[in-house]
Amino acid sequence: YGDDAGWGLKSRQISADGSQALGDEVLVNDESAGNQETPDVVGLTGGGYVVVWHAGNATKEIALRLFDADMNPTTGTVQANSFDASSQQAPNVDALPDNGFLVTWDSAGADGSGWGYYGQRFLDGVVKDGPELSLTTNFTQNQEQGHLALKPDGSGVVVWRSNHADKKFHTANFQRLTSLSLKSGDETRASAQNTFHAENPRVAMSPDGWFTLVWAESDGDGTGVFSRSYMPTGASLTAEPVRVNQILEGPAERADVIMLPGRRPAVVFQSLIPGKPLWDVYLRILPPLAAPSN
Prior knowledge:
Elements: E1 10-14, E2 21-27, E3 36-43, E4 49-55, E5 61-67, E6 78-79, E7 88-95, E8 101-108, E9 115-122, E10 133-134, E11 143-150, E12 156-163, E13 170-177, E14 183-189, E15 197-205, E16 211-218, E17 223-230, E18 242-243, E19 252-260, E20 264-271, E21 280-285
Antiparallel strand pairs: 1-2, 3-4, 4-5, 5-6, 7-8, 8-9, 9-10, 11-12, 12-13, 13-14, 15-16, 16-17, 17-18, 19-20, 20-21
Protein backbone atom coordinates (compact mmCIF):
# COMPACT_ATOMS: atom_id res chain seq x y z
CA TYR A 1 0.00 0.00 0.00
CA GLY A 2 2.86 2.32 -0.80
CA ASP A 3 0.72 4.56 -3.02
CA ASP A 4 -2.45 4.69 -0.83
CA ALA A 5 -4.54 2.98 -3.55
CA GLY A 6 -3.65 -0.70 -3.34
CA TRP A 7 -0.28 -2.27 -3.94
CA GLY A 8 2.42 0.17 -5.07
CA LEU A 9 6.07 -0.36 -6.04
CA LYS A 10 9.10 1.04 -4.23
CA SER A 11 12.81 0.84 -4.97
CA ARG A 12 15.97 1.52 -3.02
CA GLN A 13 19.64 1.54 -3.92
CA ILE A 14 22.09 -0.71 -2.08
CA SER A 15 25.84 -0.15 -1.83
CA ALA A 16 28.04 -2.23 -4.13
CA ASP A 17 29.27 -4.39 -1.24
CA GLY A 18 25.70 -4.96 -0.03
CA SER A 19 26.40 -3.51 3.42
CA GLN A 20 24.00 -0.57 3.48
CA ALA A 21 21.02 1.10 1.86
CA LEU A 22 21.72 4.36 0.04
CA GLY A 23 19.14 7.13 0.37
CA ASP A 24 15.42 6.76 0.86
CA GLU A 25 12.84 4.50 -0.71
CA VAL A 26 11.51 5.80 -4.03
CA LEU A 27 7.96 5.22 -5.27
CA VAL A 28 8.23 3.71 -8.75
CA ASN A 29 4.70 4.09 -10.09
CA ASP A 30 3.16 7.51 -10.72
CA GLU A 31 -0.29 6.06 -11.50
CA SER A 32 -2.10 4.44 -8.59
CA ALA A 33 -5.24 2.84 -10.06
CA GLY A 34 -5.42 -0.81 -9.03
CA ASN A 35 -2.43 -2.84 -7.84
CA GLN A 36 1.11 -2.50 -9.17
CA GLU A 37 2.92 -5.82 -8.74
CA THR A 38 5.34 -8.51 -10.05
CA PRO A 39 8.14 -6.03 -10.90
CA ASP A 40 11.43 -6.66 -12.67
CA VAL A 41 14.37 -4.29 -13.08
CA VAL A 42 17.58 -4.04 -15.09
CA GLY A 43 20.42 -1.55 -15.30
CA LEU A 44 20.91 0.07 -18.71
CA THR A 45 24.13 0.75 -20.58
CA GLY A 46 23.64 4.52 -20.17
CA GLY A 47 23.84 4.27 -16.37
CA GLY A 48 20.17 4.40 -15.45
CA TYR A 49 17.66 1.60 -15.06
CA VAL A 50 14.16 0.54 -16.11
CA VAL A 51 11.44 -1.04 -13.96
CA VAL A 52 8.62 -3.08 -15.52
CA TRP A 53 5.54 -4.40 -13.74
CA HIS A 54 1.96 -5.58 -14.10
CA ALA A 55 -0.45 -2.69 -13.58
CA GLY A 56 -3.77 -4.08 -12.42
CA ASN A 57 -5.94 -1.42 -14.00
CA ALA A 58 -8.69 -1.47 -16.62
CA THR A 59 -6.21 -1.38 -19.53
CA LYS A 60 -4.56 -4.68 -18.51
CA GLU A 61 -1.21 -3.02 -18.78
CA ILE A 62 2.43 -4.08 -18.70
CA ALA A 63 3.91 -0.85 -17.42
CA LEU A 64 7.44 0.54 -17.35
CA ARG A 65 9.27 3.61 -16.12
CA LEU A 66 12.84 4.82 -16.59
CA PHE A 67 15.12 6.26 -13.89
CA ASP A 68 18.59 7.79 -13.96
CA ALA A 69 21.51 6.52 -11.91
CA ASP A 70 20.44 8.70 -8.95
CA MET A 71 16.94 7.15 -8.89
CA ASN A 72 15.26 10.19 -10.40
CA PRO A 73 12.46 9.29 -12.83
CA THR A 74 13.13 10.38 -16.40
CA THR A 75 9.72 9.33 -17.77
CA GLY A 76 6.19 8.81 -16.59
CA THR A 77 4.56 5.39 -16.67
CA VAL A 78 4.59 3.93 -20.19
CA GLN A 79 2.51 0.99 -21.44
CA ALA A 80 4.71 -1.66 -23.03
CA ASN A 81 2.01 -3.87 -24.56
CA SER A 82 0.02 -2.81 -27.63
CA PHE A 83 -2.52 -5.66 -27.50
CA ASP A 84 -4.72 -4.98 -24.48
CA ALA A 85 -8.00 -6.72 -25.29
CA SER A 86 -7.32 -9.28 -22.58
CA SER A 87 -5.05 -9.96 -19.59
CA GLN A 88 -1.27 -9.47 -19.58
CA GLN A 89 1.00 -10.79 -16.81
CA ALA A 90 4.50 -11.81 -15.66
CA PRO A 91 6.74 -9.11 -17.21
CA ASN A 92 10.52 -9.45 -17.47
CA VAL A 93 13.16 -7.09 -18.84
CA ASP A 94 16.78 -7.25 -19.95
CA ALA A 95 19.16 -4.68 -21.42
CA LEU A 96 20.00 -4.15 -25.10
CA PRO A 97 22.99 -2.21 -26.43
CA ASP A 98 22.93 1.61 -26.65
CA ASN A 99 20.63 2.08 -23.66
CA GLY A 100 17.81 -0.02 -25.13
CA PHE A 101 15.91 -2.89 -23.52
CA LEU A 102 13.58 -5.80 -24.29
CA VAL A 103 10.39 -6.35 -22.27
CA THR A 104 8.63 -9.74 -22.36
CA TRP A 105 5.34 -10.89 -20.86
CA ASP A 106 2.52 -13.46 -21.03
CA SER A 107 -0.45 -12.28 -23.12
CA ALA A 108 -3.92 -13.88 -23.09
CA GLY A 109 -5.57 -14.22 -26.49
CA ALA A 110 -3.04 -12.31 -28.59
CA ASP A 111 -2.16 -15.44 -30.60
CA GLY A 112 -5.76 -16.64 -30.86
CA SER A 113 -5.22 -19.66 -28.56
CA GLY A 114 -4.90 -19.16 -24.82
CA TRP A 115 -1.79 -17.56 -23.36
CA GLY A 116 1.11 -16.55 -25.61
CA TYR A 117 4.59 -15.18 -24.89
CA TYR A 118 5.35 -11.73 -26.37
CA GLY A 119 8.00 -9.04 -26.31
CA GLN A 120 8.61 -5.42 -27.21
CA ARG A 121 11.94 -3.76 -27.99
CA PHE A 122 12.65 -0.20 -26.88
CA LEU A 123 15.33 2.14 -28.16
CA ASP A 124 17.13 4.69 -25.95
CA GLY A 125 14.27 6.17 -23.92
CA VAL A 126 10.75 4.81 -24.39
CA VAL A 127 10.59 4.70 -28.21
CA LYS A 128 9.20 1.34 -29.36
CA ASP A 129 11.45 -0.39 -31.89
CA GLY A 130 8.89 -2.04 -34.16
CA PRO A 131 5.70 -3.92 -33.25
CA GLU A 132 5.13 -6.51 -30.54
CA LEU A 133 7.06 -9.73 -31.13
CA SER A 134 5.66 -13.25 -30.78
CA LEU A 135 8.49 -15.19 -29.17
CA THR A 136 7.17 -18.73 -29.76
CA THR A 137 6.51 -20.78 -32.88
CA ASN A 138 3.80 -23.00 -31.41
CA PHE A 139 0.58 -21.10 -30.64
CA THR A 140 -1.57 -24.08 -29.62
CA GLN A 141 -2.92 -23.95 -26.06
CA ASN A 142 -0.78 -21.92 -23.60
CA GLN A 143 2.78 -20.58 -23.67
CA GLU A 144 3.37 -18.80 -20.36
CA GLN A 145 5.66 -18.29 -17.34
CA GLY A 146 8.25 -16.73 -19.64
CA HIS A 147 11.75 -15.53 -18.76
CA LEU A 148 14.71 -14.15 -20.72
CA ALA A 149 18.47 -13.67 -20.63
CA LEU A 150 20.46 -11.54 -23.08
CA LYS A 151 24.13 -11.13 -23.98
CA PRO A 152 25.72 -7.65 -24.11
CA ASP A 153 25.13 -7.56 -27.89
CA GLY A 154 21.37 -8.08 -27.39
CA SER A 155 21.15 -11.69 -28.59
CA GLY A 156 19.95 -14.26 -26.10
CA VAL A 157 17.37 -16.84 -25.06
CA VAL A 158 13.74 -16.80 -23.94
CA VAL A 159 12.14 -19.71 -22.04
CA TRP A 160 8.56 -20.55 -21.15
CA ARG A 161 6.19 -23.30 -20.05
CA SER A 162 4.32 -24.87 -22.96
CA ASN A 163 0.93 -26.54 -22.52
CA HIS A 164 0.60 -29.49 -24.91
CA ALA A 165 -2.45 -30.08 -27.04
CA ASP A 166 -4.02 -32.73 -24.83
CA LYS A 167 -3.54 -30.44 -21.79
CA LYS A 168 -2.18 -33.37 -19.77
CA PHE A 169 1.40 -32.16 -19.41
CA HIS A 170 3.63 -29.08 -19.59
CA THR A 171 7.17 -28.76 -20.92
CA ALA A 172 9.99 -26.23 -20.56
CA ASN A 173 10.84 -24.82 -24.00
CA PHE A 174 13.30 -22.21 -25.24
CA GLN A 175 13.98 -20.09 -28.32
CA ARG A 176 17.27 -18.41 -29.18
CA LEU A 177 17.10 -14.78 -30.36
CA THR A 178 19.32 -12.68 -32.60
CA SER A 179 20.59 -9.25 -31.55
CA LEU A 180 17.44 -7.83 -33.21
CA SER A 181 15.23 -10.11 -31.05
CA LEU A 182 14.32 -12.27 -34.05
CA LYS A 183 13.98 -16.04 -33.71
CA SER A 184 17.17 -17.97 -34.43
CA GLY A 185 16.83 -21.69 -35.06
CA ASP A 186 13.95 -23.84 -33.90
CA GLU A 187 11.87 -23.72 -30.75
CA THR A 188 13.39 -26.43 -28.53
CA ARG A 189 12.09 -28.56 -25.68
CA ALA A 190 14.48 -28.70 -22.72
CA SER A 191 12.56 -30.93 -20.31
CA ALA A 192 12.57 -34.70 -20.65
CA GLN A 193 10.15 -36.64 -22.83
CA ASN A 194 8.46 -38.25 -19.81
CA THR A 195 7.82 -34.93 -18.03
CA PHE A 196 4.32 -34.53 -16.61
CA HIS A 197 4.52 -30.91 -15.48
CA ALA A 198 7.45 -28.51 -15.87
CA GLU A 199 6.89 -25.27 -13.96
CA ASN A 200 8.41 -21.78 -13.81
CA PRO A 201 11.43 -22.18 -16.14
CA ARG A 202 14.27 -19.69 -15.73
CA VAL A 203 17.41 -19.07 -17.77
CA ALA A 204 20.84 -17.50 -17.26
CA MET A 205 23.45 -16.78 -19.92
CA SER A 206 27.18 -16.11 -19.91
CA PRO A 207 28.56 -13.10 -21.82
CA ASP A 208 29.84 -15.46 -24.53
CA GLY A 209 26.47 -17.14 -25.05
CA TRP A 210 26.49 -20.39 -23.02
CA PHE A 211 23.21 -20.79 -21.14
CA THR A 212 21.47 -22.87 -18.48
CA LEU A 213 17.76 -23.48 -17.97
CA VAL A 214 16.24 -24.57 -14.64
CA TRP A 215 12.68 -25.57 -13.78
CA ALA A 216 10.64 -27.57 -11.29
CA GLU A 217 9.31 -30.82 -12.67
CA SER A 218 6.65 -33.26 -11.51
CA ASP A 219 7.47 -36.72 -12.78
CA GLY A 220 4.61 -38.59 -11.10
CA ASP A 221 6.79 -39.37 -8.08
CA GLY A 222 7.13 -35.86 -6.62
CA THR A 223 8.63 -32.53 -7.61
CA GLY A 224 12.31 -31.87 -8.21
CA VAL A 225 14.45 -29.12 -9.71
CA PHE A 226 16.17 -29.89 -13.01
CA SER A 227 18.64 -28.08 -15.25
CA ARG A 228 19.94 -28.34 -18.77
CA SER A 229 22.85 -26.39 -20.23
CA TYR A 230 23.64 -25.44 -23.80
CA MET A 231 26.43 -24.18 -26.01
CA PRO A 232 25.96 -20.89 -27.91
CA THR A 233 24.85 -22.91 -30.96
CA GLY A 234 21.89 -24.30 -28.98
CA ALA A 235 23.45 -27.78 -28.71
CA SER A 236 22.75 -29.45 -25.36
CA LEU A 237 25.69 -30.43 -23.14
CA THR A 238 23.80 -33.48 -21.83
CA ALA A 239 21.50 -36.05 -23.38
CA GLU A 240 18.87 -35.47 -20.69
CA PRO A 241 18.13 -32.87 -17.98
CA VAL A 242 20.19 -33.06 -14.78
CA ARG A 243 18.59 -33.11 -11.32
CA VAL A 244 19.77 -30.19 -9.16
CA ASN A 245 18.33 -31.03 -5.73
CA GLN A 246 20.31 -33.76 -3.99
CA ILE A 247 17.78 -34.31 -1.19
CA LEU A 248 15.11 -36.37 -2.92
CA GLU A 249 12.60 -36.61 -0.06
CA GLY A 250 9.92 -33.95 -0.26
CA PRO A 251 9.18 -31.42 -3.01
CA ALA A 252 11.73 -28.96 -4.45
CA GLU A 253 10.48 -26.08 -6.58
CA ARG A 254 10.55 -22.33 -7.44
CA ALA A 255 14.05 -22.44 -8.88
CA ASP A 256 16.03 -19.48 -10.18
CA VAL A 257 19.51 -19.28 -11.75
CA ILE A 258 22.28 -16.78 -12.43
CA MET A 259 25.54 -17.29 -14.30
CA LEU A 260 28.65 -16.66 -12.20
CA PRO A 261 32.03 -15.80 -13.76
CA GLY A 262 33.67 -18.78 -15.41
CA ARG A 263 30.30 -20.04 -16.79
CA ARG A 264 29.24 -21.44 -13.40
CA PRO A 265 25.45 -21.66 -12.99
CA ALA A 266 24.23 -20.90 -9.45
CA VAL A 267 20.76 -22.31 -8.73
CA VAL A 268 18.50 -21.47 -5.78
CA PHE A 269 15.25 -23.23 -4.93
CA GLN A 270 12.92 -23.99 -2.06
CA SER A 271 12.49 -27.46 -0.59
CA LEU A 272 10.24 -28.99 2.06
CA ILE A 273 12.01 -31.79 3.91
CA PRO A 274 9.74 -34.43 5.50
CA GLY A 275 9.44 -33.87 9.23
CA LYS A 276 10.14 -30.13 8.98
CA PRO A 277 7.17 -27.75 9.25
CA LEU A 278 8.55 -25.01 6.97
CA TRP A 279 10.24 -24.64 3.58
CA ASP A 280 13.99 -24.02 3.40
CA VAL A 281 15.94 -22.26 0.64
CA TYR A 282 18.87 -24.12 -0.93
CA LEU A 283 21.75 -23.10 -3.19
CA ARG A 284 23.76 -25.29 -5.52
CA ILE A 285 26.59 -24.12 -7.80
CA LEU A 286 26.90 -26.36 -10.85
CA PRO A 287 30.15 -27.25 -12.62
CA PRO A 288 31.48 -24.76 -15.19
CA LEU A 289 29.94 -25.14 -18.63
CA ALA A 290 32.29 -26.62 -21.21
CA ALA A 291 31.96 -28.60 -24.41
CA PRO A 292 31.74 -32.35 -23.70
CA SER A 293 34.84 -34.35 -24.53
CA ASN A 294 35.15 -37.93 -25.74
